[in-house]
Amino acid sequence: MTDSKETLLKALANVNAVASGSYDGARILGVHLEGPYLDSKYKGAQPPEAIVPPSVEEFRQYQNASGNRIRIITLAPEHDEGFALTHYCVSQGIVVSMGHSDAT
User: Fold this and answer.
1) pLDDT tier, 24 (very low <50, low <70, confident <90, very high otherwise)
2) 14 within domain boundaries
3) Residue-wise pLDDT tens digits, 29-44
4) Domain span at 55
5) Domain count, the chain
6) pTM of the entire structure?
């Protein structure tokens, strides 16, 4: 989902809490973070006010909140300056998926 940083951090912390606990039911295998690093032109149903430029530091905060459970991220690569976040994610074994993009 694409939302405010505060909302994303809370949601990821909730995933971490559930995945770390004992419960009956399906096991959480990981998180697919779709945004908030998207292109506004192709945002789809994502809120435009929540779309921000890619940031390795911000992503690290999300990954920390999730308990290192982010496994896939969808982003618009044309906004990832020097592909910094893409390179970081790949180095961490996280799948980077192009989406909501206006890349040529």
Assistant:
1) confident
2) yes
3) 999 999 999 999 999 9
4) 5-98
5) 1
6) 0.94
